[in-house]
């Protein structure tokens, strides 16, 4: 079973349209159940996904709305190892590689 890190962020749910505190699972950096917020620096260690010296990366994530149980996809922008932005995934985000992240 793969480990995930989590990003806690307030975001509007695409289904119920309410603001929700999402807990977005993603796999990038050290896969040791780290908890991050926007602006956090990605941690690196033994069991990594991606590389510390990548400058611009987008990472595939997924969160569950506790209000309506929707499971929207999210895209995390990571710039110089800082989680700088999170947006809802759109239909063209299928361009993601199987690794779960893409170097820009
Ligand atoms: Zn919702």
Q: How are the SSEs placed, and which strands pair?
A:
Elements: E1 5-12, E2 19-26, E3 29-30, E4 35-37, E5 48-49, E6 56-62, E7 73-79, E8 82-88, E9 101-103
Zinc ion binds at residues 13, 15-16, 18, 20, 65, 67-68, 70.
Approximately how much helix is present in the residues?
under 10%
Q: What integer value in Å does the Rg equal?
A: 13 Å
- Inertia-based shape: globular
Q: What molecules are bound to this protein? A: zinc ion
Largest sheet: 7 strands, mixed
> What is the strand tally?
9
Helix count, per DSSP? 0
- Integer tally of domains: 1
Mean pLDDT: 91
- List the secondary-structure elements in sequence, H or E: EEEEEEEEE
Estimate what percentage of residues fall within beta strands: over 45%
Separation of termini?
28 Å
Structural class: mainly beta
Low-confidence stretches: none
Question: Would you write up a description of this structure?
Answer:
The protein is an all-beta fold and 104 residues long. The chain has one domain (5-103). The protein is 0% helix and 45% strand. It contains no helices and 9 strands. It has strands at residues 5-12, 19-26, 29-30, 35-37, 48-49, 56-62, 73-79, 82-88, 101-103. The strands form 2 sheets. Strands 1, 2, 4, 6, 7, 8 and 9 form a 7-stranded mixed sheet that branches. Strands 3-5 form a two-stranded antiparallel ribbon. The protein is globular. The mean pLDDT is 91. Bound molecules: zinc ion. The site of zinc ion has 9 residues, from loops.
């Amino acid at each position: 079973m793969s480990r995930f890190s989590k990003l806690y962020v307030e975001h509007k749910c695409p289904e119920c349209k309410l603001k929700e505190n999402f807990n977005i699972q993603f796999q990038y950096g050290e896969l040791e159940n780290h908890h991050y917020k926007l602006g956090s620096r990605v941690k690196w260690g033994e069991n990594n996904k991606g590389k510390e010296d990548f400058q611009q990366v987008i990472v595939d994530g997924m969160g569950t709305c506790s209000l309506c149980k929707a499971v929207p996809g999210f895209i995390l922008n990571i710039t110089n190892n800082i989680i700088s932005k999170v947006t809802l995934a759109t239909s063209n985000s299928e361009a993601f590689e199987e690794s779960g992240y893409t170097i820009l």
